[in-house]
Each structure stands twice: as structure tokens, then as C-alpha cells.
Amino acid sequence: MISKLKELSEDTMLAEGPRFDLEKVLAVGSALLRTLIGRAQMRFPEAEPMTIVSEMEEFPAAVESLDEMEAVFRKVKVDWYDAADLHYYVQFGPYIATWAPLGFDALYGPRANCLTSSEANWEDLDPTPVLFFMNRDQPFHPLGVKATKFLRETLGDEHAQGIHVDYVPHDVDAEIVVVRFPHDAFGAGRGEIRVCRYIDEEDWP
């Protein structure tokens, strides 16, 4: 999905690839989250309070609101990267939502042997924004019929919003619900993008 890779700095690579309109991604993605969080408080009143956390040490590890979280993504987009594995975990109701509006992929290793976060060749890096939902108490275990049905109802008509939703492994009691923000609806053309790169092996997946 990317080409013409070259090094800009130790932690940043340049490549030709799909560019995304971050403001459009945030507008739709954050609206989905706000709707889900608000309705989940009524549908799942026994759930723990909402939390927003990240594992990225160089950015705030915890923020109090979706607005603060959006500000982090905007700063990263302006100052550092167009594509990065920076993501926040938004825990609410029975869900842990992983929100990655800069994509869920980064590069690892020297330019001549860069691999993606999934250890694919660097050309396969995917900067598509993604938001996915798992079981808050037991990630990668089935969400439950009620929780899956709630997501299906609340996400609504994906075509009207431009998103694409997958229910994995199936739409009755999914283990993961994946919301993607495809380039044809959220793209800003193709061109040069700055990609987060880790050079130290201790940072590799």
C-alpha cells in the first residue's frame, strides 16, 4: 500500500501512499464513540465508568475526555506522523474500544529491511484508520449476543457514514467488531506520508 520508502530521521520514514483527512475521520469516529458511550450508560448501567488510556509513553498515558484524546491525534498529525501505531483504549459499558485514526501500523527496523507491525514487508503497511471493539473483561472472547446486537443497532447504516464494519467471527456474537474508514470515503488523495518507525529492537513487536 506504500512505495518509494526513504529515511527522514531515526524515527520517521517517508513513503508514497494513501493520505487521509484526519478531521473527517475524527468527526465520524468520535461521533460514533460519543453515541455509543451515551447509549451504553443506559443499556449497561452496571458497567464500570469510562476510562481512556494509552500504552505510548511519549504521549499522555491517560486523558479524561474524547476532546483531549482528539487533541493528541491532531498534534501527532501536525508535528510528527501521518501514519503511526498510536492508539487509545476507550473502555465503556462492556467494551474496550481501540481508536487508531492514524492507522494501526508502524514500521520496524532499518530502511533496507523495514517490516510492518504485523511483520509484513514495508510495502504492505496499511495507514487506514480503524476503530475496533472487544470484550472489556475478556479481550478476544465473544462479546455476547446483547453487546454485539447493541453495536450493530447503534453503528447503524455504515454506507451512509462511509465506514465499513466487520463482525468477527460472525455478527451474532462477535469476538471483535472492526470499523474501518476506507480511503474512498475518508481519503485526501495520494502523496508523501510520514510513517512512524522503530529502530531499536527492544521496541519491536
Structural summary, described in words:
The protein is of the alpha+beta class and 205 residues long. It has one domain (3-190). 27% of the residues lie in helices and 31% in strands. A hairpin with an 8-residue loop joins β3 (51-53) and β4 (62-63). The chain is globular and about 50 Å long. The two termini are 21 Å apart.
How would the blueprint of this fold be written?
Elements (H helix, E strand, L loop, with lengths): L2 E7 L2 E9 L1 H22 L7 E3 L8 E2 L2 H14 L8 E5 L2 E6 L6 E2 L6 E2 L13 E6 L9 H11 L2 H4 L2 E5 L7 E5 L2 H4 E12 L7
Parallel strand pairs: 7-12
Antiparallel strand pairs: 1-2, 2-12, 3-4, 3-5, 5-6, 6-9, 7-8, 9-11, 10-11
Helix pairs in contact: 1-2, 1-3
Shape: globular
**Neighbour order of strands in the largest sheet:** 4-3-5-6-9-11-10
Largest sheet: 7 strands, antiparallel
Q: What's the total number of strands?
A: 12
Whole-number total of structural domains: 1
Count of DSSP H/I helices: 5
Strand content: 25-35%
Features:
31% strand, alpha+beta, 27% helix, 12 strands, five-stranded mixed beta sheet, 205 residues, single chain
Please summarize what this structure is.
With 205 residues, the chain is an alpha+beta fold.
